[in-house]
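Figure 6 in text form: structure in, sequence out.
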């Protein structure tokens, strides 16, 4: 049974005139112990999809889906309070700007204390306080922070961004989630720190069998850490499959463009040559193309592309394109 099973999820932005379809009928599944990458340019709707899963979108966003199941339970049939209770118990999320998410006026120790589940503590108040402190130290050690006393007494601005990201992961782990959503967890970090964060997430997956949804704009970077990948463009589903299928034999022109513009794919280019890129840029919400939203930038676009393509399945490798690259070299 899938942990998360979402079919045809749409997210509308309610405006003064008419609603804007920011995410258009996207499907996503997560199995127990799976590490799935969610890839696309900035503005593809990746973070919006993640926020819809954990239920933090405000009233200006309307979420619709044919199926929205968590561990077989239909979340759309629950009240907002019941849904929040289910999701906050089993799902945690770390955001791409840890400095902005941590409270600058409170020590790290106090913020970690708030994350500890009180139901896991027992005894009198002094015994609970001691248990809470041990739990905080255990969490910091789990995410690779050895100088726990110095960290507990520090404020966020006194720590590096990489340390703050580890602390965000520790806060997320406090509830022992079944699914961890990591939204650009290494954005603006040096390559050394990026590797450390990815290795930490990988160890959590292997040792705790924790499912991870890894959101990134860098397809090449996450291929080293994921089992499966879903690609999005401008709020629409593009392609999904195993990491090997996506990276070695992409079926969609957009996925191929993401791979072709990576340094690994251009290793034989002469020095100072331009990387392969698609013309144009991702459309803004107020001016979305009809049909396939990649159409105005797609090198294979034809008249049929004014109609939204259907998803086809090729032995688990799914693609949404009228003129896919299947069978081409």
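Output sequence:
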């Amino acid at each position: 049974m899938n942990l998360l099973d979402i079919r045809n999820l749409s997210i509308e932005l309610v405006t003064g005139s008419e609603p804007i379809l920011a995410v258009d009928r996207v499907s996503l599944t997560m199995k127990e112990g799976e590490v799935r990458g969610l890839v696309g340019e900035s503005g593809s709707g990746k973070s919006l999809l993640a926020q819809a899963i954990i239920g933090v979108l405000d009233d200006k966003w309307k979420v619709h889906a044919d199926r929205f199941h968590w561990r077989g339970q239909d979340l759309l049939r629950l009240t907002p309070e019941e849904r929040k209770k289910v999701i906050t118990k089993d799902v945690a999320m770390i955001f791409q700007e840890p400095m902005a998410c941590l409270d600058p006026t409170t020590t790290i120790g106090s913020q970690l204390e708030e994350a500890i589940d009180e139901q896991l503590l027992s005894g009198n108040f002094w015994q609970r306080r001691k248990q809470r402190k041990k739990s905080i130290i255990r969490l910091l050690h789990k995410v690779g922070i050895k100088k726990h006393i110095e960290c507990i007494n520090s404020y966020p601005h006194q720590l590096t961004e990489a340390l703050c990201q580890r602390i965000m992961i520790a806060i997320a782990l406090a509830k022992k989630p079944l699914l961890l959503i990591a939204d650009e967890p290494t954005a603006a970090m040096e390559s050394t720190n990026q590797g450390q964060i990815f290795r930490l997430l990988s160890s959590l997956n292997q040792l705790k069998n924790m499912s991870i949804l890894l959101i990134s704009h860098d397809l090449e970077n996450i291929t080293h850490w994921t089992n499966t990948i879903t690609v999005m463009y401008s709020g629409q589903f593009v392609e999904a499959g195993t990491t090997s299928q996506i990276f070695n034999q992409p079926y969609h022109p957009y996925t191929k463009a993401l791979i072709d513009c990576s340094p690994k794919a251009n290793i034989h280019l002469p020095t100072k040559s331009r990387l392969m890129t698609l013309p144009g840029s991702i459309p803004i919400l107020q001016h979305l193309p009809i049909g396939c939203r990649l159409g105005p930038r797609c090198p294979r676009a034809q008249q049929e592309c004014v109609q939204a393509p259907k998803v086809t399945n090729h032995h688990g490798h799914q693609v949404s394109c009228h003129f896919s690259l299947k069978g081409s070299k």
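Caption detail: The mean pLDDT is 88.
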